[in-house]
Specification:
By secondary structure, the protein is α+β, with helices and mostly antiparallel strands. The protein has a single domain, classed as Alpha-Beta Plaits (2-Layer Sandwich). The protein is 22% helix and 34% strand. The chain has helices spanning 17-26, 65-72, 75-84, 95-99, 128-137, and strands spanning 2-6, 8-10, 36-44, 54-56, 59-62, 89-94, 104-106, 114-121, 145-153, 158-165, 176-184. Strands 1-5-3-11-8-10-9-6 form an eight-stranded antiparallel barrel. The chain is globular and about 45 Å long. The two termini are 12 Å apart.
């Protein structure tokens, strides 16, 4: 599994309804994309939920590297880059692929309406395998949880925790908060569930 996100920060006076319309018109185009576990169409709005910026920041869980590559080199990402400029794309390796445990856990909640993303730099003294095991053990068991994932960027030794929530994210959920405009999840059921493969 691969996690991926890019963030497009928009002007403070940007009409976020432009993004909402774009997602409403084009979001369904990835509803059957091969190799995609899920794409959460995420936004932050200046002055809401503590956000200092307007931002479009979709988050992906790819089941296959081929699917991720097909998207990045295909017409969808080309069109986004033409409209907003080519964004830097962050990429994390799914902890399940790296350490033999599942990096995605699906909850029983309804459709997600909010998301949280936390990144933590691992100190040089930290054992990355132990940090991942601890993060997996700490995945939230909450009735509003839709999906939670753990991944690592080994170029920065950064641990990622990402969660989708039905309704508002719990107040004690750490990290940046987003609103979910749409969820494409063509192969979510093919991502391994639980903490063991």
């Amino acid at each position: 599994m691969h996690a991926m996100q890019y963030e497009i920060t928009l002007p403070a006076d940007y009409d976020m309804d432009v993004i909402r319309r774009r997602v409403a018109e084009k979001g369904h185009l990835l509803d059957a994309f091969p190799g995609l576990g899920l794409k959460a169409y995420l936004v932050r709005e200046r002055g809401r939920q503590g956000s200092p910026v307007n931002q479009y920041a979709p988050f992906y869980l790819w089941r296959t590297a081929e699917g991720m590559n097909g998207f990045l080199w295909g017409p969808g990402f080309r069109g986004l880059s033409a409209d907003f400029g080519r964004p830097a794309v962050r990429h994390w390796l799914g902890a399940g692929l790296a350490h033999g445990v599942s990096a995605a856990e699906r909850g029983a909640a309804g459709p997600p309406t909010s998301a949280t993303r936390e990144t933590v730099r691992l100190p040089e003294s930290a054992d990355p395998a132990e940090a991942v095991e601890r993060a997996l053990a700490e995945l939230p068991a909450h009735p509003a949880l839709h999906t939670a994932a753990v991944a690592v960027d080994p170029s920065r030794w950064e641990l990622l925790r990402f969660a989708l929530w039905h309704g508002p994210a719990p107040e004690d959920a750490p990290g940046v908060r987003y609103q979910v405009l749409h969820l494409s999840s063509p192969e979510l059921d093919r991502l391994p569930a639980g903490r063991h493969w």
